[in-house]
Amino acid sequence: MAEQPRPSRVEKVLVIGAGVSGLTTALELARVRENDKPRYTVQVVAERPADQTVSVIAGALWEFPPAVCGQHGNQLSIMRSKRWSVESYKEFQKLAQVRGNGVHMAPTNFYFGVKIEDDWLEHTKMRELKKLSEDEEIQGFRRMTEEDLKKVPASFGVKDGYQLQVPAVDTPIYTRWLREQLKQQSNVTITYGKRITDRLAPQSAKIRADWGVDAIVNCTGMGAAELAGASMVPLRGALVRVPVARFPSRPKTAYAISKTAHQQDMVFIVPRETHLILGGLVEPSEYDTHIGKDYQPIKEMFDRNKRFAPELLKDVNLDDTDVDVIAGLRPYRVENVCVEKEYGFNIVHNYGHGGSGFSLSYGCAREAIGLLESMEGPSFRVVDLRPAAVHQHPDTYADLETPDFTTAQLDGQEVSVEQPIYH
Ligand SMILES: Cc1cc2nc3c(=O)[nH]c(=O)nc-3n(C[C@H](O)[C@H](O)[C@H](O)COP(=O)(O)OP(=O)(O)OC[C@H]3O[C@@H](n4cnc5c(N)ncnc54)[C@H](O)[C@@H]3O)c2cc1C
């Protein structure tokens, strides 16, 4: 595959994919202005509109990495994800102040089966969340008291917990809102029903000529297996939806218990404008989304949530006709979430968000735009890869491990780095 010349300037961009990643990237691109004019012309192409993607299935409760569903071990990747999630939190927090977009801030109780101090990962995560809350980057961190914990049925073995104000997204309303925002931008066109086939890189020049663009952003979720040759693994999930009209007053608090990501022991209860969402299913490498009320793990998931909140769900049964089940595949990439440039082919990737596509959406979109900018011109430049959060919160990140690499690919060339790129 011959490398292609870098564009002297990226002005016209094709975004492939219209789930939350594609729509957010397209909207953020469309909003970039230079000299009082839109900086980019954006075309979105997707096989399916958002209301037919996994993005509309998502529980869409914001989460701070490492993610429960689709956890990565790579520390550099987790650090980047943390920055993306905080950036997204701030954007959702602003959106929650405006009506009509499906975003609201929900007090969310996170429970744990051990004392948090006894679990290195959860302890680190909690300390970071507390610090972010003290710095007012996120809102409402509160450690639970013994009295709070006693309210959870004893059979769940809950030993600890904290509460946060967390963005909760009503996905049908929010993805419709994203599409409407895009329609209002004069510099955006959207084409649905078109599938791009085969690896993007070898046909990048042709695709760019056909669409009249300088660069491509790949936001295809599971589709990246074909378009980027990515190691995608579906993490099948399902949600039970109960109309909020069933409750005397609209439920306000969200609840999450996850002792392990792969044993089916999760409790996940999220109130939305129209429905109360019950979830917690994670089944790796299962592709079939035609699962419903008769599927045993869904019955168990419903029963678990009902045992957790017996008072709230006392009159709700899985076979009630107004209670439905939806299922989808979280697009998990084995190595990490992929927000990367494909060197020499004028492609930026933004896929593989697993169970965190909403939580990371704005941060990833903005980083993808930064990567488009860094494609321009012939010069070789060394970029500072240290996430801004490392500079801003040195104490918070002090005990994270130093990544173990001594070479890096920068703009297609292998360079040696005598020191790790961040420490
Ligand atoms: C049960 C469940 C619960 C979840 N809960 C949460 C949660 O609480 N918080 C959270 O942040 N996330 C959650 N998620 C994860 C979230 O849904 C995903 O991470 C996110 O929707 C991924 O969005 P995406 O835009 O990258 O991919 P998708 O929504 O899959 O969109 C991909 C787009 O690319 C298009 N496409 C693919 N291949 C091609 C091709 N070859 N040619 C043209 N177009 C193509 C598709 O048609 C589609 O438009 C959950 C998911 C599930 C299933």
TrEMBL record:
Keyword Hydrolase included in the entry's annotation: no
Reaction it catalyzes: a D-alpha-amino acid + O2 + H2O = a 2-oxocarboxylate + H2O2 + NH4(+)
Keywords: FAD, Flavoprotein, Oxidoreductase
Pfam assignment, any one: DAO
Protein name: Amino acid oxidase
Keyword presence, tRNA-binding: no
Lineage: Bacteria, Bacillati, Actinomycetota, Actinomycetes, Kitasatosporales
Gene3D superfamilies: D-Amino Acid Oxidase, subunit A, domain 2, NAD(P)-binding Rossmann-like Domain
PANTHER family found in the cross-reference section: D-AMINO ACID OXIDASE, FAD DEPENDENT OXIDOREDUCTASE DOMAIN-CONTAINING PROTEIN
Co-factor requirement: FAD
InterPro entries, alphabetized: D-amino_acid_oxidase_CS (IPR006181), DAO (IPR023209), FAD-dep_OxRdtase (IPR006076)
Gene, per the UniProt record: aao
Family, per entry: Belongs to the DAMOX/DASOX family.
Residue stretches making up the FAD dependent oxidoreductase domain: 12-368
